[in-house]
Amino acid sequence: MRGTDPAATDSVRWPSGSASTGRAVVSRIGPEIIDGVDAAGLDDMTEVARLAASRYGISPDCRLHPYPLTENWTFRIDADSTAPVVLRIYRPGGRSPTEIHSELAWMEALQQGSPTLLPGVIPTRSGGQVLEVVREPPLDGCYCVLFGCAPGREPAEDQLAAWFPQLGAITARLHRHARAWAVPSWFQRPRWDLATTLGDRPHWGSWQTSVTDTEERRQTQRLAEVVMSRLRKFGDGPEHFGLVHADLRLANLLVDGERITVIDFEDCGFSWYLYDLACALTFNEGRADVRELIALWVDGYREVEPLSREDEAEIDTFLMLRRLMLSAYAGLRADTELAAQMGADGYSAETCAISEPYLSRFG
Fold first, then answer.
1. At how many degrees (to 10) do helices 315-332 and 347-362 cross?
2. Under DSSP, is residue 79 helix (H, G, I), strand (E, B) or coil?
3. Final residue in a domain of this structure, among 130, 148, 166
4. Is residue 144 within 8 Å of residue 35, measured between CB atoms?
5. Pairing mode, if any, of strands 131-134 and 35-38?
6. Is the pLDDT of residue 21 over 80?
7. Full-prediction pTM beyond 0.85?
8. Can you tell me the distance from the alpha carbon of 169 to that of 171, in angstroms, rounded to the nearest whole number?
């Protein structure tokens, strides 16, 4: 099994229809996977989800409602005897068990001080946070986590001005916690820096894979060069860079009454703090009121944490970085509904139009 100390255990084959009875153990490289299920021959992720749900004591006649595919397979599960829950099946070959446990560790630490800010993790019947799904080649195994189903809906686009001060304050709370939190020695999350976003080791590949028009590619290349130049000067010192959510787009925010719940920490890692603001404006950078939304977010942030004038001056750089990264995502995850929608909406052409004022100032 991945995520265990190879010196301490041999690989395990999980029996179909039963879960292990071991207790969670934290090794020097992180928590071990103590629960699993044999899904040999299953390539339909809906069937994998139904099988996985049984490890949590959920009835096999439960109702599965898939969310749009963006990276991982996610289902809301409704069963007559329990409250709704959300099952995430991590993309095979994606996050390691240590990375997944690290994501959950930060979520758990955040919940200690803000129990309603994010959904809780629901353990398996044996007490494990992560469930291993074993499949035979050519199918790859994968991992599952079950979360509580938070109430609410995505913020309406015509109501963002009402929510952005609170979102700025929430983001500042996340950053304040990250700066003070002593991460476990085994903690492992991706680093979203210059090399791994636009450089020679990009996690999502090159933005060029989804930009095929010659003129759009020329202008996008110019944009990438300007963004990289400014980020090199800005630097990644601790005053600018640390543990962030890294995907605070509207789809990952649920509003209910006057409360915002933050979901989906799957991209969390080490990056520039201002990248979280750029994520909040994903697909909304061209709005007529974008300057107002930024100002409202900054005001809310400064009610909790300081934000220097130097940081504020680079906000547009991070908006452009996010646009470039999502171009890369669209090429890497062309099988997703989100990438298809981006292509249909003319995302690359829109990036060129949005970047014109930025390039006039800095390019």
1. 150
2. strand
3. 148
4. no
5. parallel
6. no
7. yes
8. 5
Q: Identify whether residues 39 and 72 lie together within a single domain.
A: yes
Domain count, the chain: 2
Q: Contact 121/107 with Cβ under 8 angstroms?
A: yes
Q: What residues does 66 pair with on adjacent strands? A: 75
Q: Tell me, yes or no, whether 103 and 126 share the same domain.
A: yes
CATH no. for residue 53?
3.30.200.20
pLDDT digits 0-9 by tens, 118-177: 999 999 999 999 999 999 999 999 999 999 999 999 999 999 999 999 999 999 999 999
**Residues 293-322: pLDDT tens digits?**
999 999 999 999 999 999 999 999 999 999
Give domain status of residue 11, yes or no: no
> The domain containing residue 31 runs over which residues?
26-148
Alpha carbons 202 and 191: distance in angstroms, whole number: 10
pLDDT band at residue 34 under the 50/70/90 scheme: confident
Alpha helical stretches, state H, 281-336: 290-302, 309-313, 315-332
Whether 279 and 258 share a structural domain:
yes
Identify whether residues 85 and 116 lie together within a single domain: yes
**Where residue 330 sits, what CATH number does that domain have?**
3.90.1200.10
pLDDT (0 to 100) of residue 28: 56
Q: Which residues touch 240 (CB under 8 Å, ≥6 apart)? A: 234, 272, 273, 274, 311
What single-letter DSSP state applies at residue 129?
S
* Pair 112, 195 in one domain: no
Q: What is the DSSP letter of 25?
A: -
Distances (CA, A) of 92 to 45, 72, 89, 98: 11, 9, 8, 15
Alpha helices of the chain — where are they, by DSSP H? 45-54, 97-113, 160-180, 194-197, 214-234, 275-280, 290-302, 309-313, 315-332, 337-344, 347-362
Name the average pLDDT for the chain: 91
The structure tokens listed for 280 are: 């909040």
CA angle 357, 358, 359 (to 5 degrees): 90
Residues in the chain: 363
